[in-house]
Amino acid sequence: MLKKIGSLIVPATLALTSFGNPSVTEVKQPNIILILTDDQGWGDLSISGNTNLETPNIDRLAKTGVTFNHFFVSPVCSPTRAELLTGRYHPRGGVYSTSAGGERLDVDETTIADYLREAGYATAAYGKWHNGMQPPYHPNARGFDDFYGFCSGHWGDYFSPMLEHNGKIVKGNGFVIDDFTDKGIDFITQNKNRPFFLYLPYNTPHSPMQVPDKWWDKFKDKDLKMLHRDPEKEDIPFTRAALAMCENIDWNVGRIISRVEELGLMENTIIIYMSDNGPNSWRWNGGMKGRKGSVDEGGVRVPMFIKWDGVLPAGITFQEIAGSIDLLPTLAGLVGLNLQPHKQFDGISLKPHIDSETREQEERFLYSHWNGRVSIRSNNFRFDDSGQLFDMVNDPEQTTDVSEKYPGVAASMKEAKKNWEADVLSELPESDNRPFIIGHPDYKYTHIPARDGIPYGNIERSNQYPNDSFFTNWTSVADSIVWDAEVPAEGNFEVEIYYTCPPEAVGSAIKLSFAGKSLSAKISKAHNPPLKGMENDRVERMESYVKDFIPMKAGTIYLPQGKGKLTLKATDITGSSVMDFRLIVFKRI
């Protein structure tokens, strides 16, 4: 049975909930499944008109739900994740980079998972987090009861890699997207009788370009009919790999939908599908200008569909602009959360606008920012970072500057950009003084990776892109790896170090120290596997190759409360080098 709440038709069983008092809800609220893909462009779907691939399951979401045809996110991944989680522009939450701590979402921000868990939802995230690794930045500290995946910006191996489950290091099971989907299906099944929020932040088609043969074989020699608007820029093998990965995503989306249907939950489940930024290569994208990293249309316009059978109108297209900042307030409106946010949202609830009777909205601007560049989008125009104005209705490819034709519009958007920069960008500090947290008292595990460390002496990073890198060329007792750290509560910690080393390094001694306390250990086991990843790459990667790192139990260390330098050094080297270093895991005891 349906009833009307405002202009939206919803199930009669839905009750309003006040944040902070979930007991007022006496009936089951709708489940939410949010699927986020990584580096998938607007054009990487057959529903968008791309005949190079087939995505029937995602297309079905669009055909039976609401399509947001002009939906905008940030040009890169961690900023978009921060915005969809909080409903606020990413600089407000301290997110300014994609690695080395700049991806962390400030701890005083409240996430959608925080709100929903407080309202009685079971919450889980399976995949790529990319908004902070150490608690209180970790997903378990941001509203998610269960987390399985990795917290870094990209990963070096997609086939049964080292992952984590609520902080504990585990080994993945098969291709990561299939694995994350398996976990999601299990979560849906286990929570079929209570409201749940499932966040599936997939990490494809982000590079490295790895995909099982089942999907690659269709594309490895495929003649692509639809190319980038500047075909000479396109890397055809890369495009083929990206499209194969997108078809794998589609298959997994189909698996999620099938399980929801099998359990009879379709009429009580909201399913959202979107991507985090534009495509990660020059490939067909509807002729739009720009790609991932760009603040032009092609860098920030992504697919976005919301489906809720029997509640949201089926098969309609919402043409007005919307963005990642709108997701939290929109979902809050749909499920009936009476939010009292700790900080003001930048986004708006789209609930009143997606009812078939009231789709129009007042004129608004959406802002795209990255690397000091800012552009603005209205329903009809884009004002780019260089001050050019484009008529996006008649010139969606951004070919002709119309600022002289519409001087009033250009002046208005120029002023809006100036004001937004003064308001929003001013919230980012000139330097990031947030230390890496070790041993939050509410959580058992803390991961301190090579990614976040600073090498001194001969030590080198395995690749210029830090996220899945390790440290190598550790050849001197004068060398060290240092992290700016803070221990919020004193305690004793078991320490494991993930490493590789040749046989001649056995017997080398290392020392871990912080605030006058130290732990010494000796390498007792050789483990010298080759680099891997290239055997599964469909095209040559730009990121680091990885190794099969193993843990060494280093012992127990007492860490006092306070800030300081966490330092890892060698005190004795028996061969030409100490180890290749990947990760320290602290376990509070």
Furnish the topology, listing elements before pairings:
Layout: E1 2-5, E2 8-11, E3 17-18, E4 31-37, H1 56-63, E5 66-68, E6 71-72, H2 77-86, H3 112-118, E7 122-128, E8 146-150, E9 162-165, E10 168-171, H4 176-190, E11 196-201, H5 213-219, H6 236-262, E12 269-275, H7 297-300, E13 301-302, E14 304-307, E15 316-318, E16 322-323, H8 327-335, E17 337-338, H9 351-354, E18 366-370, E19 373-377, E20 381-383, E21 389-391, H10 407-423, E22 436-437, E23 445-449, E24 454-456, E25 460-461, E26 471-472, E27 480-487, E28 491-500, E29 509-514, E30 517-522, E31 550-559, E32 562-572, E33 580-588
Parallel strand pairs: 3-17, 4-11, 4-12, 5-15, 6-16, 7-8, 7-11, 22-27
Antiparallel strand pairs: 1-2, 5-14, 6-13, 8-9, 9-10, 12-14, 18-19, 19-20, 20-21, 23-33, 24-27, 25-26, 27-32, 28-31, 28-33, 29-30, 29-32
Helix pairs in contact: 4-6, 5-6
